[in-house]
Predict the structure.
Amino acid sequence: MKKSIILIGLLFVITISSFGQVIKTKVIDQGGSGPYKAIAVREETLRDFVVYRPKKLKMAVKKEGALPLMVFANGACANTSITHEKVLSEIASHGYMVVAIGALKMANDENWESTEAQMLVEAMDWLVAQNEKLGSDYYQRLDLSKIAAGGQSCGGAQVMAVAKDPRIQTYMMFNSGMGDMSMAGASTKSLTHVHGSVIYIVGGEEDIATNNAKLDFERINHVPVAFANMLDGNHGGTFNEQYGGAFARMALNWLDWQLKGQKDKSVVFLEPDLSDFPNWSIDVKYFRN
């Protein structure tokens, strides 16, 4: 904590700043390919999560305005995002702030425990509190009206389990779908709770989630929904590739369109223009051109 002492007449007033909450940082893929080099952060007030954010937050906000947000749940509903960190760091490097379930790990030791979907709500609560807290690094730098909830595999089910949360504007299901199953507190019924746009990003016939995602796409009939299929992506997609590979680029097109209002990015989905995405297919419904 940073302390300052101010003399007012004969009265000493001690003020304590809340700066310096960061207790550990990590750089992934040299900070990503975006205009704002990203870092992964462990926060003193959020020890069971990782914050992926531009390193020079003030500069990013000056250029972008208040940053859109994503909360993220991991494959296997695990308490670590290390297997997804390349995608999440890459997203952050393009002017986003991501909070993922699980404490920051410097290396993958393959030790993990299961988590609860409610942690996504905790992440959103923390973001709201930090944006309102005078002295926080994030004070008035976050756009709370632009929140994406994303998850991979079982993490996608966790997203659906909290789908009612009114703060969520768009949902991102990576290698995930409910189909006719129940998982992580979610089921087919959870689809009716979705109140914003949805994208499924899956990995072709070898992805065990693809058929469930197709069923979800067919059943959702009240909000805009997209189905982006990397035909040779398998269940792990490109999470392991530098800068998160094609999964990160597809996710960024979606986020830039849905949360930043960049209509030029909609051509990937609405035309669809897949010139930058060989061996992908896209289906959409309920979008207005």
The first strand starts at residue 2 and ends at 8. Confidence is low (pLDDT under 50) at residues 1-20. The chain has one domain: 21-285.
